Amino acid sequence: MSTATATDRAEVSQQRSLLSRASHFLTLPAVGPLFALLLACVYFSVRTDRFLTGANLSLIVQQVMVVGALAVGQTIVILTAGIDLSNGAVMALGSIFMAKLAVSGGMPGIVAILIGIAVCTVFGALNGALVTMAKLPPFIVTLGTWNIAFALTHVYSKDQTVTGLPKSLTFLGETFPLGNTDVTYGSVLMLVLFAGAWYVLRQTSAGRHVYAVGDNPEAARLTGIPTRRLLLTVYTVAGAVYGVAALLLIGRTSVGDPQAGQTDNLDSITAVVLGGVSLFGGRGSIGGALCGALIVGVIRNGLQLTGVPSIYQVLITGILVILAVSVDQLARRRRA
Amino acid sequence: MSETDGTEVRPVLEAHGLIKRYGHVTALSGADFELLPGEILAVIGDNGAGKSTLIKALSGALVPDEGRILLDGRPVRFHSPADARRAGIETVYQDLAVAPALDIASNMFLGREVRRKGVLGQVFRLLDHKRMQAEASGHMQDLKIGIKSMKQAVETLSGGQRQGVAVARSAAFARHVVIMDEPTAALGVKESGMVLELIRQVRDRGLPVILISHDMPAVFDVADRIHIQRLGRRVAVVRPAETNMAETVAIMTGAAPGNLDVAANGNGSS
Fold first, then answer.
1. Neighbouring residues of B234: CB distance < 8 A, sequence distance ≥ 6
2. What is the distance between the alpha carbons of residues B107 and B148, in angstroms, rounded to a whole number?
């Protein structure tokens, strides 16, 4: 009798640990977005044969690589309870620097690239300095730097598209074969950015501190985390990531276009929010943001393939954003 | 502890003649303080008595204008809470200073994360999640806080359990002193009782505790001695066993003179 209860208990506890593991998995922030992404993929696979092909999936990743890269920077900023409206314009400025320095300035590609990334990094640092030292709200700061970067882009380029870019700048648009599918180097670089961000956020103390600062800045400060230095670093690193996005943009379009990236700031926020990252900070995961970026790409691509006018993609994205934020709000209220 | 008189044991933490002024307001006017090994010392006082200023000076949150602080007999000067923490003084704050979305282990080691050994930790700065979870679990068990998974987000815990995480964190890292600033203020009756029990356990494990509280029954329940602060200085130190709440409150409000209150004793007859 007693042994029977003992084994029963052991079984129960084993079941419980399986259950708790399963329930732990379900509470992971990327699960919802991943599920939505898979759902969208299944739906379009059923609707059209042309969706689930290597070439098409590669195309989707290629289409989201610029906004995806911006979303990496946007995610770490939003995790600190900030927001970055400037990232699209900063990226455009960086890409114009790269293009002009290489074409008109005759600089070697790598030098032009490094200067372009440096320009974006400086803008990131400026955002961070204004947020931490002048203590201005991130929304206002990045609204300002968005306009500044936009204006500088047009002044510096004299509103001219830069063409005839050397290969040393456009190489990310080139492809390599993966099985039967051609994949661009840019797609891989975007995934590498996500992997790097995952590593830092999940596996290093700096990443834990980013979450803590967004979650409860006062508690973070009291545990001895240098919160202002951390925020400054976050915005600066985000700037450097936008520099990489600038290079991806050039790879994708093979020109330096001063008009590029005008709605990419909002698109990157959309991706992050769809990925289940809370705009209130401290919650969400970088994997979710990747899913968010891919959801937008899959819907756009799927609707195109099924012959639906592309404006409906915008409509659906809008509805999804509101849904995602509602879920976040509901979860917050239940916790409170 | 009741056998030895306070004068014969060297205090773990002491302060002499602390003065702190804010413009025309004097928050501390020559306050003394003494924490003995292995005791729970409650600090009480009316609003404006300088109780929180005193605690802030002891925990490094502010630097007093004058006076000396000694830790284990050695003079110390704290310029930040991090300084005090490095010296082995941990503080539990009343507003549950935890990051609710982070899990228990991450909160316990927040700002003091443990990295993997060797190249993985030194070069790749990889965190040792397993070890932190195991140690967190050990610290929680030391205080008999029954929570199974250290991967649980702190926000899924009750208020008392959250405070339990904060107490376990301070007990785990404090080498000399644990300061608890109104640890039960945000809690219900049952949960307060649980936190008071934790405070006793921290003391029984050898760490002296400074307990700041408005809750007189709680103070009389757990404290070994009570430091009464009034008008910016210490006016009395009493033992709960030798007095009662009415007398203590009378000293606190100035209705009765304290046993260390030179000014009140001197002026009492005039």
1. B31, B32, B33, B227, B228, B258, B260
2. 15
The domain ranges of chain A are 29-329
Cα angle vertex B88, ends B129, A218, to 5°? 65
Which of B83, B96, B102, B150 is best to mutate for the A interface (most A CBs within 10 A)? B102
Rounded to whole angstroms, what are the CA distances from A15 to A12, A84, A208, B51, B153? 5, 45, 31, 51, 21
- Please check whether residue A218 touches B, CB under 8 A: yes
Size of interface A-B (CB pairs under 8 A): 69
| Minimal C-alpha gap between B146 and chain A (Å) | 16
Q: Do A208 and B113 touch (CB under 8 A)?
A: yes
Distance from CA of B90 to the nearest CA of A (A): 10
Using DSSP, state whether A202 is helix, strand or coil: helix
Check if A204 contacts B (Cβ < 8 Å). Answer: yes
pLDDT digits (tens, 9 = 90+) for A283-336: 999 999 999 999 999 999 999 999 998 888 889 989 988 988 888 788 777 765
Distance CA A90, CA A235 (A): 12
Residue A132 CB-half CA count within 13 A: 21
Cα–Cα dist A152/A155, whole Å: 5
Helix boundaries (H) for chain A: 2-27, 31-47, 54-79, 87-103, 109-132, 138-157, 167-170, 185-203, 205-215, 217-222, 227-253, 264-274, 286-305, 311-335
Residue A1: its pLDDT value, please? 42
Distance from the Cα of A255 to chain B's closest Cα (Å) equals 37
> Mean pLDDT, to the nearest integer, of B74-97?
87
The answer to whether the CB atoms of A282 and B101 lie below 8 A apart is yes
Contacts of A204 in chain B (CB under 8 A): 125-127
Q: What percent of chain A has pLDDT over 90?
A: 80
The structure's pTM equals 0.86
Contact B69, B176 (CB under 8 A): no
Asked if A209 reaches chain B (Cβ–Cβ under 8 Å), the answer is yes
Identify the CATH number of the domain defined by range A29-329. 1.10.3470
| CATH 3.40.50.720, applies to B13-97+166-267 | no
pLDDT at B131 over 90: yes
Distance separating alpha carbons of residues B268 and B270, to the nearest angstrom:
6
- Burial label for A308, CB within 10 Å (0-12, 13-18, 19+), is middle
Angle at B167 between CA B165 and CA B170, to 5 degrees: 110
> Which chain A residue has its CA at the smallest distance from B149's CA?
A20
Paired residues of B210 in beta bridges: B41, B179
The alpha carbon of residue A21 is apart from the nearest alpha carbon of chain B, in Å, by: 10
Neighbours of B128 (CB within 10 A): 17
| The two three-digit tokens of residue B140, written as one number | 């929680």
CA distance B156 to B177: 29
Across the interface, whether the CB atoms of B111 and A209 are under 8 A apart is answered yes
User: Residue B113: which of A324, A99, A220, A287 has the closest Cα?
Assistant: A220
pLDDT digit string, tens, across residues A262-275? 999 999 999 999 99
Where does CATH 3.40.50.300 sit in chain B? 13-97+166-267
